[in-house]
Every structure is written in C-alpha cells, then in structure tokens.
Amino acid sequence: MPVAGDGELAAGDLAGLDVVPFEVTGDAVESCADEAGCGWLQFHGAPCDTRGDDPSVPRMIADDDAGGSVVPQAYRCPHCSLALAESATVFECGSGHVFDRAREGYVNLLPGGRLAGGPSGDDDAMVRARRAVFDRGAYDPIIDAVGAVVVDLTSGRGAPRVLDVGCGEGTYLARASTAAGGAGWGIDISKAACRLAARRAPGLHVAVASNHRLPFDSGPFDVVINVFAPRDFPEMLRVLRPGGAAVVVTPGPHHLAQLKALVYDTPRAHRDDEPTPAPPDSVTTVQFTVQLPDPQLRRHLLEMTPYWWSASPERRAAVEAALHSVDAEMLLAVYRR
C-alpha cells in the first residue's frame, strides 16, 4: 500500500485487507486500533469516517491538532497536479490552490470554473429530463447491463473503485458502484448534471471536470464507465489500474429510430466514427423497447437527446402526440487495459 508521509507501517499491519491507498501529510501514521478493527489508517488517533452509511466509500478525518491531513488518493489539482486535500468545505493542494465544495457536495475542478467559450455540457432541463426517464424505469435494461458487467469485471476485488467519465445525473454510476459494492467517482463538464448526481447519491464523489484531462493520478480505478459521452481513450486507460477495464456504451445503428423519424425528414442510421486504441475485448448489443404511455414521458425522452435541438415546435408536438413506443439499441463494449 503506497503511503507518502513520515510514518512507516510494520510488515503485516494491513495483511489480508483490501485497502484503498491514502496520501498522507503531516506526522506519524498508525494502524487503526479501534474496537471494530476496521484496518484503515488513522492519524493521531483520529476516528475513521465514511460518506453516509456506506462503508465502501472510505474517508479519513484528521485530528484538528494533528498539523496534517489524511485523504483518499483521489483528485489532483487542475493547475499544478498536486493532490487535493479534502475537508468538509474545500479541496486544497500544497501550492495553495483552493476549490470550494458546493452545497450539494460536488466540487468544480475546471480551471476558472468553466471551459473556455462559455457554458458547456447538458443544461438543467436536459439532465432533469434524463432523470425523469430513468426514474420511470425506461432505461433499466441498459442501466442494469452496465451494472452487471461492472460486477463481473470486479468480482473478487473487495471494494472496487469505479469512475464514470461523463457521469451525467449519476444513475449509471450509482447503480453500478452499489451493485459492485465499491466506491463511485463521477466527472462531467455539466454543473447541472453534477449537482443532480450529488444530491441524489451523497455517497458518490462528483466533480465538474473535463473528460480530456481527468483530475486523477494514473491507475487508481478498477473500472471506468463511459455512456453516451465524449471519450478520450488515452485518458480513460491512464487512470485504470493494470488489468482494469473501460466499459463504453454507444448507440447502435437503429437506436431510437422511431423518434428520429418524427424529427427528421430523412433520418440516418447512427455511425460511431470515434477512433479506439484497439478492438474491444467484447461487444454486446442491448436491445429493448421503451413504452411511452403519456405525452410527458415522450417529451422527456426527446428532451434528453440531442435531437431536441433539431426539432421544431411542430416536430416536438408530433413526438408528444404519436410516439407510443421506441426501440433502443446500444452497443456495450469492454476494453481491458
């Protein structure tokens, strides 16, 4: 277990334990000796802490008089790449760069707080529409399929670390990390999406950040998820541990064909032309029919897709009136590092 600090662990102190690495600054480190025998490091006798009631999401809190901090090996400063020490209200690196924790619990790690060029990512209406569709169970087949693949990939690894690159409102990450019994980390460039994800699942670690510059060291994650989001394969593979895997979901050629037929005069089959570092280790086609019994759900489905921006008011009204069901077709690919 790599630990940076002044203290050393005796051989065998953590033998047989599945422990997440921690970065330590300050004085000596001791093994946890509380009655629970939890095995986590503690700092000057400080108690172990967890996010919510989920022991699979560990966090250490340092004694106020300790003169140092103990935090998970997690976020790196977007300005200088030093580790960010976490407190209840801020994240701060050794160079003095400080990032406030939002009221909902997420942190904005985009330099300057936003990407150059103005607002970016899905807006509040889009992420709320997606949440409404997911809450109705309309996309459960693919959400459950992603979770099942993550469970299979992390079997036997204790409490795995799962990162969702482009996590949106957090449903895929929350379902997958819970199913695998691990800790969930999500990044998205949309503040609205991160806000919603952090509110719904306080146990998740959520940050506003770019998929093309992930704010993590190399190799801390067991699985990286990417669902219908921009992807940077070199970055995704960089943050995977050796033997880890990326789970990538993209639309199939005929995904939401009935919806597209109501929006476009000449709809075209979807093509994914993004380059990949190598052929995937496996590809599974997930197909299911989404029942849309009421106009509000039909509108939410359209609004959660990029087709919303192409649809005229008349086309939007046609979707609400006529789209009683739609076929989903998605490709679930696994890339092992």
Topology at a glance:
Blueprint: E1 22-25, E2 30-31, E3 41-42, E4 48-50, E5 58-60, E6 69-72, E7 85-86, E8 90-92, E9 98-100, E10 107-108, H1 124-135, H2 140-153, E11 161-165, H3 171-180, E12 183-188, H4 191-200, E13 205-208, E14 221-227, H5 233-238, E15 240-251, H6 257-263, E16 282-291, H7 295-303, H8 307-310, H9 313-322, E17 325-336
Parallel strand pairs: 10-13, 11-12, 11-14, 12-13, 14-15
Antiparallel strand pairs: 1-6, 2-3, 4-5, 7-8, 8-9, 15-17, 16-17
Helix pairs in contact: 1-7, 2-3, 7-9
Question: Brief description of this entry?
Answer:
The chain has about 325 residues and is α/β, with parallel strands linked by helices. The protein has nine helices and 17 strands. Helix 1 crosses helix 7, helix 2 runs parallel beside helix 3 and helix 7 crosses helix 9.
Please name the defining characteristics of this protein.
single chain, 337 residues, alpha/beta, Rossmann fold, eight-stranded mixed beta sheet, three-stranded antiparallel beta sheet, 9 helices, 17 strands, globular, disordered N terminus
